[in-house]
Amino acid sequence: MCGIIGYIGKKEIVPLLITGLKRMEYRGYDSAGLTVLNNDSKVLTRKKKGRVADLEQLINSEKIHSNIGIAHTRWATHGFPNDVNAHPHNDSQEKISIVHNGIIENYAVIKKKLLSEGFEFRSETDTEVLCLLIERFYLKVNDLELAVRLALNEVKGTFGLAIVSTYDPDKIIAARRGSPLILGVGDNEYFVASDASALIEHTKNVVYLDDDEMAILSPDGYITKTISNVQTNNEVKTLEFDLEQIEKGGFEHFMLKEIYEQTQTITDGFRGRLLIDEGNVKLGGLRTVKEDFRNAKRIIISACGTSYNAALVGEYLIEQLAQIPVEVEYASEFRYRSPVLFDDDIVIVISQSGETADTLAAVQEAKQRGIKVIGLVNVVGSSIARQTDAGIYVHAGPEIGVASTKAFTSQLTILTLLALYLGRMRNISSEEGLKIARELSAIPEKIKQILNIAPEIEKIAKTYSYSRNYLYLGRGFNYPVALEGALKLKEISYIHAEGYPAAEMKHGPIALIDENMPVVFIAPKDEIYEKIVSNIEEVKARKGKVIVVTNIGNNELDRLADHIIKIPETLPILTPILSVVPLQLMAYYTAKELNRDIDKPRNLAKSVTVE
Ligand code: F6R
Q1: 3-state secondary structure of 89
Q2: pLDDT grade, residue 114 (50/70/90)?
């Protein structure tokens, strides 16, 4: 989704802004632009629909020198993706320039008022409305910072923004409400960015802005204050990842790199938390809510997309190990349907980015109703991580590929830890705890074995890459894996795919099966294995093409399946962490065969910060 980078210091601004924008390309965008101040009475703005490389080409034909500027990658919300709607947006006299992430919800009312006062608009965006509102106030009060504060008091909605102006040429003004913004603190140079990856090669010292906070950056330093003008004193934190971690490391795509990283990221998730010899779990982040968990009568897990699929596995895990009833709900539904909540409920939200607007709104809804909210989040310092009452970081490291892979298996790892923690607190014996802990610690090695058969999976993917539809079927713990396999395939290959509980097939989807329909069965040897074999027979009888994921050593399905992928055995509750890996690879190799833009699939954004 949209990205912001701004800089004030001594370096040449254009290459710095362009590199910063490139670092945020993975978030998804449709246009890019920048504004610099170069001693002219007007701001200098260049923007273009398309890739950052197109903007770079446009600018390279000019000789622009400056050391203060702001830049943006836009993912359209209000108005088409085109040059005019791209950010930055400027006031009518080209003296104030703004980049903005988020949505100004009352932009139509403000626009009407400004139009009636004679202001003219060039674009269809809500951001331009905010810019002209700032101009209107500036013309009255003659003070840029005050004009920004007055304008922000009038707008409803969300913003992460950065502003430069020839009225006050030694400053960048930044502000946030509901959209992340970080300051980078360098040596006599300062940055503002919506994403740490845009500034990490310059500094690891950062300040996270809170909602309704603003920052004023100058070559001599920065100050932070609330939008209502009370000075704040935010701690400088250190970023814990480096640039290498967000680069491809020899892999053709970030997605493939991240699939291979799972042998490590899962270990990172349980290291220091899983007490293997005690069959127990230590979760420091839950210290303050331990009693709430002990007394909880129900857990509601809310999330979106892949994180929602992880939540479904979480439901099965927690109910099985801890015997606490669990409900799973899409965050977008939870926030708007006034769910019935009880004082002894706990809401858990799961989010890779920690910035998903719907999930954040679910957090706020639950908190407003007085319910404890726990976050399972990957991005440290993200909005959800900071707004939840307690939480467990997922520790998957930066995930750049738009299609989530390693974050999913790390979320499953953390959900296993949580279920075991709650189970040991309530009813699980230490023997059972030991068995689960040992098996979980063996998972990374087993993932390595699956990665070793990637060439076989690639062959299968190629065989069916021209199919128009795919069906994914699984039961029990592997039903959410079927959903995730289908989601991965559709988002990066653009092939229509459905995930279903295998037994539901006969209630409808079976009508779709013919000789052109590949059907992926996730069929490990567990207690419902026999049932799924019957479902495989049903597909075979209708000439469907059967691809089975089952365990090494199970040769019974060789006669039925057209293709078979064998994965190591583990406990049924842990199978999803393994069984999803071949499905991630299937999706990857299918998309590769079709020459898709794997890391940046069309219409998708890494972090969905709009409703
Ligand atoms: C799918 C995918 C999305 C995200 C969803 C939630 O591969 O990445 O479906 O899972 O947008 O995002 P987070 O987890 O960041 O809240």
Answers
A1: strand
A2: very high
Alpha-carbon distance of 515 to 518, in angstroms, equals: 8
Q: Is 606 a known active-site residue?
A: yes
Among residues 488, 545, 566, 606, the one annotated as catalytic is: 606
- Is the Cβ–Cβ distance between 472 and 446 less than 8 Å? no
* Dist. CA 287 → ligand 1 center (Å): 28
Tell whether pTM > 0.85: no
- 244 confidence band (pLDDT: 50, 70, 90): low
Q: Say what the pLDDT of residue 241 is.
A: 74
Distance 487 CA to ligand 1 centre (A): 10
Structure tokens at 372: 């404890």
What pLDDT score was predicted for residue 506? 86
Q: Where residue 501 falls among pLDDT bands split at 50, 70, 90?
A: very high
Atom of ligand 1 nearest to the CA of 379: 15
DSSP collapsed to 3 states, 481-511 = HHHHHHHHHHHHHCCEEEEEEHHHHHHCHHH
d(CA 295, ligand 1 centre) in Å: 31
Say if ligand 1 is within 6 A of residue 130 CB: no
Domains of the chain are: 3-239 (3.60.20.10), 243-446 (3.40.50.10490), 453-598 (3.40.50.10490)
Residue 562: Cβ within 10 Å count: 15
Q: Which atom of ligand 1 is nearest to the CA of 605?
A: 11
Q: Which two tokens stand for residue 546?
A: 């059967």
- Which pLDDT value is given to residue 569? 97
Verify whether ligand 1 is closer than 6 Å to residue 608 (CB atom).
Answer: yes
Residue with structure tokens 């988020």? 102
